[in-house]
Write a structure and sequence with these properties.
2,3-Bisphosphoglycerate-independent phosphoglycerate mutase, substrate-binding domain; 16 helices; seven-stranded mixed sheet; single chain; alpha/beta; manganese ion binding; metal-binding; Alkaline Phosphatase, subunit A
Length: 563
């Protein structure tokens, strides 16, 4: 650290001893929701987690509570933003809340850093001979995208060599007033006209309403994405116009049509030819910062092996997202705005205070318990004090085929590390609830939750043997609610009367349980941190290691009573 007077040395905790082995267990996709048939955690046999929740032992009074794992608690813009494994592990490891999503894009645009990264350099290679296509939601709603960010991006790319730009707009009417699309389109058209005056060939090429074109989510309806693909890539749509403002106004006149459900259109020249299909050699950027409604189009743009609909042709393009939308899938592979730079993580502090650390998961979550935990940083801080073990995940199958995944192997590695007494902290991620939950297979997710619970038992049994402490938590919800619901919370049915499966993360809180024979008598959860989140866990764990957390960390969840 460059700042003068900085020291990695942590103060000793006034009441809690050092030297206890701590098991830090993250159950991926394990939220807390009402018990019902679609709550796979409730349906599954999970005696270990049930015991942590229900039994008040001599060692660990008041050792179970819930913490927030979504929205502002993990640095996302709104309380409607689901948490994910990347931001969840960032918060768990960093002990502070870092801007993610929209704020990150704002900072990158303000500083110009967006144009210095590998993602921009990659798409810029197409500027000389190809077209830059920008696809996203035209809105100032701030939920998925913002008009001012698009305006800054247009200015920035045109100043850095983009000679031909095509914008593919998706009208909103959901996060903003219906009808506001006309004004947004007029604003964009004015900006593009100004660029044309400066010699940049810039215009709107296609459009459609967000709920009918491109922006489907959770693989609910690939036809929505196909309608977008046909207009944006193939230059084909049922409606053709010479002006986007005219298109939006005219299409809104169709009965029962609104901004959200505007049918797809393409802009054509005087000869009736589409002005901006995506072709070989072009660059494409999806400019939404929120992931859920651009993951599907990202797959269509990026994956050579793709079978969700007939793309007709798959142009050789340079594609980047505004951000990386899925850290597990590494989708897209290129992106304009990198994850936040996080310094002074709990892992680095603890290693600098002599804490020997063992971290383990299987491939799909290994990066979360190491890279994301350590502030988006690869490798160990001190290889002499740390060991990271990756167990290869099953490949070539979907995770519901073998829902137990590698939970047992992860638990065995953790058990052996604990019993070796070589490590002060043994940290694992058990991926089952999340990875199997994403498949939408309820029966398999029940099996997955049972397997994760059995893994927790093996780790806790080892902690019992060495007189250690356990901390069991999660990074976000998933397996606790596997059905889509209406505003009343009732399951939604499809046209055939079958329940609509939910394969996404949720907005539910997650548990954190502490205990074990090494937990000092009198340790309990504080009552004055009711809205605690994942970022509060780092200070809590530092305390259990016998240290006070740095003053700028989110406050600890525990206190020590003298009696």
């Amino acid at each position: 650290m460059g700042s003068s007077g900085f020291s990695w040395k942590l103060k000793d905790h006034p009441k809690l001893p050092k030297g206890k082995t701590i098991a830090m267990v993250v159950l991926d996709g394990w939220g807390e929701a009402k018990p019902n048939q679609y709550n796979c955690i409730h349906v599954a046999e999970t005696p270990t987690m049930d015991s942590l929740k229900n039994v008040i032992s001599f060692y660990a009074p008041e050792r179970w509570r819930l913490v927030k794992a979504h929205g502002t608690a993990v640095g996302l813009p709104t309380e409607d933003d689901m948490g994910n494994s990347e931001v969840g592990h960032n918060a768990l490891g960093a002990g502070r809340i870092y801007a993610q999503g929209a704020k990150l894009v704002d900072l990158a645009l303000e500083s110009g850093k967006i144009y210095e990264g590998d993602g921009f350099k990659y798409i810029k290679e197409s500027f000389e001979t190809g077209t830059l296509h920008l696809i996203g939601l035209l809105s100032d709603g701030g939920v998925h995208s913002r008009l001012d960010q698009l305006q800054l991006l247009l200015k920035g790319v045109s100043e850095r060599g983009a000679k031909r730009i095509r914008v593919h707009i998706l009208t909103d009417g959901r996060d903003v007033l219906d009808g506001s699309s006309v004004g947004f389109t007029e604003t964009l058209e004015k900006d593009l006209a100004e660029l044309r005056e400066k010699g940049v060939d810039a215009q709107i090429a296609s459009g459609g309403g967000r709920m009918y074109v491109t922006m489907d989510r959770y693989e609910n309806d690939w036809d929505v994405v196909k309608r977008g693909w046909d207009a944006q890539v193939l230059g084909e749509a049922p409606h053709k116009f010479k002006s986007a403002v005219e298109a939006v106004k005219k299409l809104r006149e169709i009965p029962n049509t609104n901004d959200q459900y505007l049918p797809p259109f393409v802009i054509v020249d005087d000869s009736g030819k589409a002005v901006g299909p995506i072709v070989d050699g072009d660059a494409v950027v999806t400019f939404n910062f929120r992931a859920d409604r651009v993951v599907m189009i990202a797959k269509a743009l990026e994956y050579e092996d793709f079978d969700k609909f007939d793309r007709v042709r798959f142009p050789k393009i340079r594609y980047a997202g505004m951000l990386q939308y899925d850290g597990e899938l590494k989708l897209p592979n290129r992106y304009l705005v990198s994850p936040p730079e996080i310094e002074r993580t709990s892992g680095e502090y603890l290693v600098n205070n002599g804490i020997r650390t063992f971290a383990c998961s299987e491939t799909v979550k290994f990066g979360h318990v190491t890279f994301f935990w350590n502030g988006n940083r690869s490798g160990c801080f001190n290889p002499a004090l740390e060991e990271y073990v990756e167990i290869p995940s099953d490949s070539g199958i979907t995770f519901n085929v073998k829902p137990k995944m590698k939970a047992l192997e992860i638990a065995e590695k953790a058990r052996d590390a604990i019993l070796s007494r070589k490590y002060d902290q043994v940290r694992v991620n058990l991926p089952n609830g999340d990875m199997v939950g994403h498949t939408g297979d309820i029966e398999a997710t029940v099996v997955a939750c049972k397997a994760a619970d059995e893994a927790v038992k093996m780790i806790l049994d080892a902690i019992e043997q060495v007189g250690g402490i356990y901390v069991v938590t999660a990074d976000h919800g998933n397996a606790e609610d596997m059905v889509k619901r209406n505003k009343k919370g009732e399951p939604l049915l499809d046209k055939d009367g079958k329940i609509q499966i939910l394969t996404s993360h949720t907005l539910e809180p997650v548990p954190i349980a502490i205990g074990g024979p090494g937990l000092a008598p009198g340790v309990r959860y504080r009552k004055d941190v009711p809205s605690g989140g994942l970022a509060n866990v780092a200070a809590t764990v530092m305390n259990l290691h016998g240290f006070e957390a740095p003053s700028d960390y989110e406050t600890t969840l525990i206190e020590v009573l003298d009696n």
